[in-house]
Design a protein that fits this description.
Length: 148
């Protein structure tokens, strides 16, 4: 079966160019699917290809290099994700939906989740439970009010 250039072997110059187009498109804010199309993958397979590309070692290295160019290394992103994972609404209450989104993003970035894998729901739930428990330990009851 053809692996669509997704192995971790050194890619050909043509494949490297596709990877670069994909990474650039993602960084510009396009969806994974659209980025795969922009890189030259067929629209009918773009979602699958994009998902594979996000796990590809060469593509991950391209992201890391591009982020470093703009001063956005791992510490920068870790702080952004942490801030999002601790998000509150305009009344100061925990914003669980936003927190869940950032947690999912962090888990995907660090390879703990696939975009549509079965482990996603369970992993997200586990992290959310840990966040609720941490909030309770700090005296929050989930409504944003300090507990007694």
């Amino acid at each position: 079966m053809y692996n669509y250039g997704m192995s971790d072997r050194e890619p050909t110059p043509q494949l490297r160019a596709k990877y670069k187009k994909f990474a650039t498109s993602v960084i510009e804010g396009n969806t994974i699917r659209q980025s795969a199309i922009d890189a030259g993958y067929a629209p009918g397979r773009a979602s699958e290809q994009g998902s594979r590309l996000m796990r590809n070692t060469t593509v991950r290295q391209l992201f890391e290099r591009e982020f470093k160019k703009i001063g956005a290394g791992r510490d920068f992103w870790a702080n952004k994700v942490r801030d999002g994972a601790e998000a509150n609404d305009d009344k100061g209450n925990p914003d669980w939906r936003t927190r869940e989104g950032y947690i999912n993003m962090a888990l995907r970035i660090w390879g703990a989740l696939s975009r549509d894998g079965e482990g996603e729901h369970a992993s997200t739930q586990n992290v959310m439970i840990q966040l609720v428990q941490a909030a309770q330990r700090r005296g929050l009851d989930g409504s944003g009010d300090v507990g007694e």
